[in-house]
Design a protein that fits this description.
The chain is mainly alpha-helical and 83 residues long. The protein contains 4 helices and no strands.
Length: 83
């Protein structure tokens, strides 16, 4: 269980206190989603809720990448360096 706790704390640290590259930021959000999915499986929820959670998280990841690509095309890559 400490493995999941470590990844959760690391993910929240990157999410709130770090100014990394935007794609790395999206990757750590997906790591948090995977950790929460494993926690749901470990605590014995029915299989339907984790599958729905995974479905919504995949849609969220695809939306994040599409917004990133749209901003990169319209503003250029120097826009993301300023964050």
């Amino acid at each position: 269980m400490s493995f999941f706790f470590l990844f959760t704390v690391l993910g929240f640290y990157v999410f709130f206190f770090s100014s990394l590259h935007s794609l790395t930021f999206l990757l750590f959000i997906e790591i948090l989603v995977i950790v929460f999915l494993f926690v749901l499986f470990i605590f014995g929820y029915s299989w339907l809720f984790p599958v729905m959670f995974l479905l919504f998280s995949v849609c969220l990841g695809a939306y994040g990448v599409s917004v990133y690509v749209a901003l990169s095309r319209s503003c250029g890559s120097s826009y993301f360096v300023s964050f």
